[in-house]
């Protein structure tokens, strides 16, 4: 009789655990992966943003740190201008819709980049021109599926698989993105067309900035070069403020107006 009672309690406990896990699975499955990614982009950029950022490029033989200011508006407009060190100050990159332009003050020339170069290294770092622009291709050119969840620090983190839509003009064969339930981008893994991992971007620190919790330190790690990395740190940020239209112009790249 005693063994029967113990067994009954064990069965009751297992049933309760099963119900709890089943409920969690349903909740995770109900989370819209596209909405989670949109929340991450909204947190990252807002309707508009103005940020001051440092970028440290680390190589086994050397390391350098650059400072830049960046402005974004919607999903289409981005301007990034370097302010330090002196030899890089004035270099700028401008994204207008699907067009990307670079400016070199030594040459005093604005050059439009072809689409084939947007995935190339930006300023010698492990980030690309598309990364700089925080391009929303991830939202528009891929289909999304939640493939896993985990708990960390009281939050649920969703792992989302992004597969290119048929005929999509994208470089990556697949992306896996980890997004926290409050819209913080935690990690992004990039796969080539053969489904090999090429690089991984991780959020190293989250802190309040510009009135929101924000991934203030991000590091990009190439998979085949473990000894090198690029770290981006957001020093200051404001969001959802009016940005003058002249900011996102080629003439402003060459002759900055009050910035």
How is this structure best described in words?
It is globular and about 50 Å long. The protein contains five helices and 13 strands. It is of the alpha+beta class and 259 residues long. The protein has helices at 2-30, 33-45, 129-132, 137-140, 250-254; strands spanning 48-58, 63-73, 77-84, 92-96, 99-104, 109-113, 142-152, 155-164, 174-180, 185-191, 197-209, 212-222, 229-239. The protein folds into two domains: 1-30; 31-254, outer membrane lipoprotein receptor (LolB), chain A, CATH 2.50.20.10. Keywords: Signal. Residues 1-28 form the signal peptide.
Please render the helix and strand layout as text.
Elements: H1 2-30, H2 33-45, E1 48-58, E2 63-73, E3 77-84, E4 92-96, E5 99-104, E6 109-113, H3 129-132, H4 137-140, E7 142-152, E8 155-164, E9 174-180, E10 185-191, E11 197-209, E12 212-222, E13 229-239, H5 250-254
Antiparallel strand pairs: 1-2, 1-13, 2-3, 3-4, 4-5, 5-6, 7-8, 8-9, 9-10, 10-11, 11-12, 12-13
Q: How are the strands of the largest sheet arranged?
A: 6-5-4-3-2-1-13-12-11-10-9-8-7
Instruction: Kindly report the CATH topology of the largest domain.
Output: outer membrane lipoprotein receptor (LolB), chain A
Into which percentage range does the β-strand content fall?
Answer: 35-45%
Structural class: alpha+beta
- Strand tally: 13
Total separate domains = 2
Distance between the termini: 82 Å
Low-confidence stretches: 1-6, 10-29
Rounded average pLDDT? 87
Helix content: 10-25%
Q: What Rg, in angstroms, do the CA atoms define?
A: 22 Å
Q: Give the overall silhouette.
A: globular
What is the helix/strand order? HHEEEEEEHHEEEEEEEH
Tell me the number of helical segments per DSSP (H or I, 4 or more residues long): 5
CATH class of the largest domain: Mainly Beta
**Biggest beta-sheet profile:** 13 strands, antiparallel
What is the assigned CATH homologous superfamily of the largest domain?
Answer: Lipoprotein localisation LolA/LolB/LppX
